[in-house]
Amino acid sequence: MKFSFFIILLLVCFVSFSQETQHKISVNFQDAPLEEVILQLESKTNLKFYFIEEWLAGYRFTGAFENTSLEEILEKIFKETLLNFYRMEGNKIILTRNNVIYDQFPRDIFNNSAGSTVERGDAQPVFIAAERGQSNVKTIYIGKEDKTNKTRNFLLKGFAVEVESNRPLPNLTVIIKDRNIGTVTNEQGYYELLVPIGSHLLETSSLDTKPFQVRLVIYNNGELNLQLEENFEQLGEILLAAKSNQNVRQAITGLEQINVGEIKTIPLVLGERDILKVATTLPGISSAGEGAAGFNVRGGRADQNLILLDDAVLYNPAHFFGIFSALNPFTSGEVNIYKGSIPAEYGGRLSSVFDIKTKKANTQKFAGEASIGPVTSSLALEIPVVKEQSALLLGGRSTYSDWILQNLDEPNLKNTRASFYDIIAKYHHVINDNHDVEVTGYFSKDVFSITSDSLFSYDNRLGSLRYNHRFNSKNRGSLIVSNSNYNFNIDYQGGNANDFKSGYRISETEVKYNLNYLYSDKHDFNYGMSSKLYVVKPGRIEPFGEESTVEPLNISSEKGLESSLYVADNFKINEHLLITAGLRFSLYNSLGPGIQNNYEQGIPRSEFTIIEVQEFGSNEIMQTYVGPEVRFSARYFLAPELSLKGSYNTTYQYIHTLSNNTTVSPTDTYKLSDNNIKPQSASQYTLGLYKNFAHDMYETSVEGYYRESKDMLDFKVGAQLFLNENIETEVLQGEGQAYGVEFLIRKSLGKLNGWIGYSYSRSFLKLDSEFREERINNGAFFPANFDKPHDFSLVGNYKLTKRFSLSANFVYQTGRPVTFPIGKYSFNGADYVFYSDRNKFRIPDYYRLDVSFNVEGNHRIQKFVHSFWNVSVYNVLGRNNPYSVFFVTENGEVKAYQSSIFSIPIPTITYNFRF
């Protein structure tokens, strides 16, 4: 019996050995189509393959095998495909796509719960329930099933684009409905999700696109690129946020997002669609008034805002002293304003960051958009270069105000000038799924002359190159190179010996490498480094004409290098608590060539107290400052639609703007930190509540803040700032305080939509010293020039029909502080004015109501031109809002005057169209 059993066992082993031997073959393939590979295998064996031909399309294989088993050959052939194979009796090979054929149950299949990881035995098969009630939903299979893979959660990634233009869709919510998990696409439209194995329903949510739904069957890691259709139903709405519930869920505080395409119904001055003017209707963001350049964010000065256009600094974002924005609304895409929690990757400014992105051009077909208004016109063209791969965006704006002024029947305006233009170009090229390049160039110029003898001009020039690279599913990075230039000039030609040309210039060049690492679903790291070189020419003056006797003067250039390292982690502790913690370390070097004055200690600085003059060679370090900056914010869910957020930020600023006006003028100048002027620094604390109602139809928030600042730069009484070789003798550095509370309620959907914003805020400055000459207001805190406690804005749009709507915009602000003369005195036979403490009084309060009627063209998709008419009235109440109050002595009497920019209703008609 034992012998018989041994014989049978020997025969079984022999048969098995024979079968294994006869299926070892030698074969060689050189870039052969997969169907040809299978045919060769059939010709060399007695096997027969069963498959669907279209499954093999696009696959090719290269490989050489010598006396190799068939199983090993097939494993290598199908390794990089979505195909699996199953060998049946009778030498039949069945190919399947995505899934695996099981001929027996794996071990412990009934002892493991769904979604768990199998600890022993084979991986569990994927069971897919029959679809009921959703037969119209498309099913897509991701990856292929692997018997040896015991993982039960896989990475799904991809890009979301608009189907017609192929432009990326940022801020798109991607949700796995049955698992209540989701994410939001980044600015390149990229997303990543960890999804359990099996069948799931994926949905997208965005105000810009139509709803999208697809059934996924997840077998392994894979990609799903989403092509979504634009939602034409939303054309008449006024919305600023495109993220569903994002205001409640995210950890960052004080973030405002403007959807540029949806602000066209807001009535603004002269019919201009103005991004930055819309920003001032949000709480915490204001300007000194009509005609003021720059913005004040949470009690900060205008030069404390970092304004980025495609990663390059835009120094002056205004045309004609703040009346118009220097940004083309038809080429602008996403606008993110950080006024609370500033991400660790940004630095160099104290108050805020305006991160403005130019949209990417349509890569499939030629498109454009334009507007024709009473004073200005704008145009944007989208030109495909390589279909579905690269495109060029061109934009331009200009005013014909010069022509209007020359044709007015007013002799006083015959010799005046007021014109501006700006142009922008952006080229975007997708190399492959992992590499793309963006190149942007921008130039703007303003020329104006209010008097016949002076011509003012200023221009911005910037360029940036951004190379985006995805290393793998968890790591991606961007290399950014940018350059910015800003010039201000004044030419005076009065026909006498005092004619001159003057101006100043600043330039900066930055290299930045930014990286993202998705470590897990709980940790998302952002880190990198940057280095920025400043070159400032503080001022120059030279004679204008042969008869001029003006002595030329050129203030020595300044140079500084600001470098930084930063890291931040978006850390999800649990379902309730989310923390974003970051650290930025900045290093600033004041570089030569240059001269530094050393002053005698214990007495006020002046040109007479210089005790030593140090000279430094080219690129020699004159002074060094270091600044560790903490960036921390947290969000805690009190309820599903209610969150509490808090943040703490520290920031440093190494460049200063010196001005004794509220507008850009020839007396303005830029100054870098050196051994006599320290960098400014600030710490800000923020706490807020965020609540959404009625399925995110209503968004509400209340946020309070407190900021302390050090080494704030201001000027002495009677300071001479322009063309001063020893500027440190005319300025003071002191403390700053700002605090406030902001309230916002926004309705995004429905016939009536818009927002109400209110902020109560105060901003104070303290310039104290042991010396009387260096004290302002006896060393006490006094209101800053832009301190306006009450700021209320209401923006609303009511849709009468899908084509017709009414819009209104109401603004109320406390009048800003000013210094008034409170008396006069005589000295040596001359009369002089005696002024009050600085900023002791206020100009009258500001309020304004604007209305507009909007007419959309019909919404047929195949229509060649989609038009939009805007009929608006700016300052419909005719309020004579004072911009400034000034005093003139006439015949020994001091008289007060006020200046206003728009003191009567301004009606305009603007025609917009896109194709």
CATH level-3 fold name of the largest domain: Maltoporin, Chain A
CATH class type of the largest domain: Mainly Beta
| Mean pLDDT over the residues | 83
Return the CATH architecture of the largest domain: Beta Barrel
Tally of DSSP β-strands: 57
Helix content range: under 10%
The biggest sheet, with number of strands, parallel, antiparallel or mixed sense and barrel status, is: 22 strands, antiparallel, barrel
Give the full name of the CATH homologous superfamily of the largest domain: TonB-dependent receptor, beta-barrel domain
Portion in beta strands: over 45%
Provide the number of structural domains. 3
Domain TonB-dependent receptor plug: 272-349
GO cellular component, one term: cell outer membrane
Organism: Antarcticibacterium arcticum
Signal peptide: 1-18
